[in-house]
Specification:
Helix content: 40-55%
Shape: globular
Structural class: alpha/beta
CATH architecture of the largest domain: 3-Layer(aba) Sandwich
Largest sheet: 7 strands, mixed
Strand content: 15-25%
CATH superfamily of the largest domain: Type I PLP-dependent aspartate aminotransferase-like (Major domain)
CATH class of the largest domain: Alpha Beta
Number of strands: 12
Low-confidence stretches: 5-13
Number of helices: 15
Mean pLDDT: 95
Radius of gyration: 21 Å
């Protein structure tokens, strides 16, 4: 058996795997598995799964929206949001590096005939009200009809200030546009800002919240918005094959995560800061400032693969992105894991 490209010999070099590739790699613990086993279930297509209903209501309340809809993934949630807001030949505006544009296989264009207009982003992933306003199309049959502005918070670990989001939303409202927030890691932003989740998403008409990243559930996202919007989204979810039956066993994980794993995101942020602080002492390794649970490092091209091999042989897994490699802390990463990772990086850079 191998793990993430690691041989059995390499894996056996450590009793514990430290997987820093993403916060999507978390695994449900005993209490979450118990919640799954004890979940009350029913047929969700008929609206009869009490646990899914409870999850949708809880997320909507946390985010200050009228209703929610449980989805299989954040990509499905964003796709259905775009198709609910926009008709064929209409357009959404988004940052060129936002997940909804760059990393979801162009689903809204392929499946919905929706046009994307990407904007350049700054180093923290921000777009500006001026950028948005300059790209809203006039009422001219030569152009697609602009319907939607998409925001993302957090973006690559960077928290987008609420005031900046609200300024962009004000431009959208002035032009009759809706706003969708890809809040896959919205709870990280809320914890970092010391604000309730509803405040982070107040500017948006719809929000996609991922349960399977820092919150630690194995599967799922919830799309929230007005009751009418969610009714449209529910039809599209069915059309795209996302109608679930006794999905409460999965929704129970989401409920457990929301009850137990929001405030503890502060631990991930603290671990990320400590990791960045330790790695910054490695001569020749560039380390970006940390805001939430992501650390970006820039090993030289000749160092990256030897570094990954050195770490893997000691039970530490990192990704291979270039030119900057992302390390992500999460609920399966302890402070001891962080210290071990710092020490192992130090061994490589001393060598």
């Amino acid at each position: 058996m191998s793990y993430a490209g690691m041989t059995d010999v390499e894996a056996s070099a450590s009793n514990r795997i430290v997987d820093l590739r993403s916060d999507t790699v978390t695994r449900p613990g005993e209490s979450m598995r118990r919640a799954m086993a004890e979940a009350e279930v029913g047929d969700d297509v008929y609206g009869e799964d009490a646990t899914i209903n409870a999850l949708e209501e809880k997320v909507a309340a946390l985010l200050g929206k009228e209703a929610g809809l449980f989805m299989a993934s954040g990509t499905q949630s964003n796709l259905i949001a775009l198709l609910s807001h926009c008709q064929r030949g209409e357009e959404y505006i988004a940052g060129e590096e936002y997940h909804v544009f760059a990393e979801e296989a162009g689903g809204a264009s392929v499946l919905g005939g929706v046009v994307a207009h990407p904007l350049s982003v700054d180093a923290r992933g921000a777009i500006t009200p001026g950028q948005v306003e300059s790209r809203i199309k006039p009422d001219d049959f030569h152009y697609p009809v602009t319907r939607l502005v998409c925001l993302e918070n957090t973006f690559s670990g960077h928290v987008q200030p609420i005031a900046e989001q609200e300024a962009i939303a004000a431009v959208a409202r002035r032009h009759g546009l809706s706003v969708h927030l890809d809040g896959a890691r919205l709870m990280n932003a809320a914890v970092a800002l010391g604000q309730p989740p509803a405040a982070v998403g107040a500017c948006a008409d719809s929000i996609s919240l991922c349960l399977s990243k820092g919150l630690g559930a194995p599967v799922g996202s919830v799309l929230s918005g007005t009751s009418d919007f969610i009714a449209r989204a529910r039809r599209l979810r069915k059309m795209l094959g996302g109608g679930m039956r006794q999905g409460g066993v999965l929704a129970a994980c989401g409920l457990h995560a929301l009850d137990h794993n929001i405030d503890r995101l502060a631990e991930d942020h603290a671990n990320a800061r400590r990791l960045a602080e330790g790695l910054a002492k490695c001569k020749g390794l560039d380390v970006d400032p940390v805001e939430t649970n992501m650390i970006f490092i820039a090993p030289t091209e000749e160092d990256l693969e030897p570094l990954r091999a050195h770490l893997a042989a000691r039970g530490i897994i990192i990704a291979a992105q270039r030119p900057r490699t992302r390390l992500v802390t999460h609920l399966d990463i302890t402070s001891e894991d962080v210290e071990r990772t710092i020490e192992t990086f130090g061994e490589f850079y001393k060598g």
